[in-house]
Specification:
alpha+beta; Nuclear Transport Factor 2, Chain: A
């Protein structure tokens, strides 16, 4: 067995500190204990470092029963039913009256249009919530499998894709202990906030 200069120097240092058995190149119990303690410390630090730098992958959830009923009313083009399940807002009244602007954005002019309904027609739906306050949130609704396809592990946070194609953005408010749709999912077509 051929030893390097570094190994010989290390063995000599260990011998001077009494960490080698006399007349042998075998390490003493003290050296083994010291090495094990160092390995445990290094492994622990590596694990802690990995845990601190890991970021949670964005996850979506299934729609609740009340959300499924609401989205079902939109898919069925039941403006009264959808408006009944919404918070009492100007958008709910405009939806009930079939305001042409809301009708085009929510229901579309024909199947496959860039609309809220087009997104909702491809179940099972996957919902990603973004809290604005304790009383308000935006829920991004994705058609089957689209949320997972859009995610890039190289980028932190959720990738949302194209509004009206990849997702519908719906603003919910808390009322009487329940989340109620506030905007008929018109946040889908709201202008994007400028990057700062």
């Amino acid at each position: 067995m051929r030893l390097s200069t570094f190994t010989i120097a290390r063995l000599a240092a260990d011998a001077r500190r009494g960490m080698l058995r006399p007349g042998s190149l075998e390490p003493s119990l003290e050296l083994l204990t010291d090495m094990n303690a160092r390995l445990v410390l290094v492994a622990g630090l590596a694990g802690l470092s990995a845990a601190c730098t890991a970021t949670a992958e964005p996850e979506c959830r299934e729609a609740t029963a009340s959300e499924r009923a609401l989205f079902g009313a939109i898919v069925a083009h039941n403006e009264d039913g959808a408006a009944d399940m919404m918070a009492d807002t100007a958008q709910a009244r405009r939806l009930r009256a079939l305001d042409p602007e809301i009708e085009a954005q929510v229901f579309g002019a024909r199947m496959g249009d860039r609309s809220v309904r087009t997104v909702l027609m491809r179940p099972p739906l996957c919902l990603y919530d973004e809290a604005l306050t304790n009383e308000e949130r935006v829920t991004y609704v994705f058609p089957a499998g689209r949320f997972e396809q859009l995610q890039n592990p190289e980028i932190q946070g959720a990738e949302l894709g194209v509004a009206g194609v990849d997702h519908a953005a719906c603003r919910f408010v808390a009322q009487n202990g329940q989340w109620r749709l506030a905007d008929a999912c018109l946040a889908t077509f709201a202008p994007a906030a400028p990057a700062s």
